Amino acid sequence: VSEPRLHQTIEAVLALGLLASAALLACGLLLPDESVLRAGVLLLMLTPAARVVVLSVGLLLERDWLFGSISLWILGVLLGSLVLALRA
Amino acid sequence: LASSPALLFLTGAATGLVGSLLGLGGGVLLVPLLTLALGVPIRTAIAASLVSVIASASASATVNLRKGLVNMRLGLVLEVATSIGGLSGGLASSLLSERQLYAAFALVMAAMGAAMALRSGTRNVIADLSVDPGRLGGRLQEGATTFVYRVRRLSLGLAASLLAGAVSGLLGVGGGIVKVPVLNTFCGVPIRVAAATSTFMIGVTAAASSILYYARGEIALPLTAAICLGALPASLLGARLSDRVKARSLKVLMALLLVAVALQMTARAL
Questions:
Q1: For residue A32, cis peptide bond before it (omega within 30 degrees of 0)
Q2: Are B56 and B26 spatial neighbours (Cβ–Cβ below 8 Å)?
Q3: Alpha-carbon gap, residue A58 to A67, rounded angstroms
Q4: What is the DSSP letter of B126?
Q5: A52 alpha carbon, distance to own chain's centre
Q6: Residue B144 neighbours by CB distance under 10 Å
Q7: pLDDT at res. A38
Q8: DSSP letter (8 states) at residue B34
Q9: In angstroms, what separates the C-alpha of B67 from chain A's closest C-alpha?
Q10: Residue B40 gets which letter from DSSP?
Q11: β-strand partners of B147
């Protein structure tokens, strides 16, 4: 995976996540439906996490072990906050 | 919470636009606007702002990636610090009273306002292309010229990122207003790269803490949705226009605004 290609993929993941969550938020407000709003907010929060997943995979495919593992570590922190949130 | 969705949409749009023009998340403006002008409780405002910051920072990031301004490797390294800071800030916020949150916000705003007003206009670029940018540095295209920059004092950048993350998780702002000046002034990163790389990180920082706010039931869904829907398109526009705006006058305006808000927040805290 080349660097510009990785940039493009990340850009696409972010754009997709934003579009889908904006659609859900708009529907949730217009209908109005709280579960749709909830889905929109959760999807929005997941979008940066999806970006971290894509970046980790991309860097590991590039055999960039140092930055790939840094990226995986960040994913670990995000998972940690999810675990803490579920316990609350 | 009685504010109309249209008003909230406009508030999200205005703060998203100014935020992305300045290369920051809009949270530093959104929280005071919601609490001081619209009477939203500060905890609700902070939670809504965190979610909106994810929307506007991610939207700006798509534009900045295309412009080649994001230094992804530098961003990754600093994200280690911001995400831990974000997580701790998110946990700590439930321990503070409303009054303490106002006081913390006032303090941070005043410090940031002063830093912004005093910030030097040093340029960190080297025109000699034979210079090695190192593992974390990079190249920056400005018009027809390409510049090289090297990253210095990484430990200071990491410390600023940890603080930025904590401030973000605690007060619902992106934290760019802490990171960008430090990266630019002390770490040798050109201002536009510093802002774009900071924005790239903000989504992850805010995601780490916003999930905690969500679990505590502090995210007011319709309010947050209306703000995010305004912030999204406005941030895309702001990020696109950011090259054309004179940064200096906006920064002075921003500094004045921050100090004014800090004073008002202090009044609330007392």
A1: yes
A2: yes
A3: 10
A4: B
A5: 6
A6: 5
A7: 96
A8: I
A9: 10
A10: -
A11: B140
Q: List, in order, residues 6 or more apart from A55 with CB less than 8 Å away.
A: A6, A10, A71, B72, B76
3-state secondary structure of B268: helix
CA torsion through residues B211, B169, B48, A54, sign? negative
Whether pLDDT at B123 is above 60: no
> Which tokens belong to B142?
């400005």
Higher pLDDT, B244 or B48: B48
Alpha-carbon separation of residue B54 from A29, B97, B98, B268 (angstroms):
19, 25, 23, 27
Contact B221, A37 (CB under 8 A): yes
Question: Which 3 state secondary structure label does DSSP give B261?
Answer: helix
**pLDDT class of B49 with cuts at 50, 70, 90:** very high
B58 contacts in A (CB within 8 Å)?
A: 14, 17-18, 47-48, 51
Contact B62 A14 (CB under 8 A): yes
DSSP class of residue B146?
E
Beta strand segments in chain B, E: 138-142, 145-149
Give pLDDT, residue B134.
80
How much of chain B, in percent, has pLDDT values that exceed 90? 36
pTM, two decimal places = 0.89
Q: Is the pLDDT of residue A34 over 80?
A: yes
- Which positions in chain A touch B70 (Cβ < 8 Å)? 7
Compute the nearest-CA separation of A61 from chain B (Å): 15
Nearest 5°: phi and psi at B96?
A: -95, 150
Interfacial residues of B (vs A; Cβ cutoff 8 Å): 5, 51, 54-55, 58-59, 61-62, 65-66, 68, 70, 72-73, 76-77, 79-80, 83-84, 86-87, 90-91, 203-204, 206-212, 214-216, 219, 221-222, 224-226, 228-229, 232
pLDDT at B252: 73
pLDDT of residue B259: 80
Q: What pLDDT digit, counting tens, does each position of B130-186 carry? A: 777 788 888 887 777 788 888 888 999 999 899 889 988 988 888 887 888 788 878
Question: B196 and B64 in contact (C-beta within 8 Å)?
Answer: yes
The per-type count for chain A, helices as H runs and strands as E runs, is: 3, 0
The contacts of residue B102 (CB under 8 Å, 6+ apart) are B42, B265, B266, B268, B269
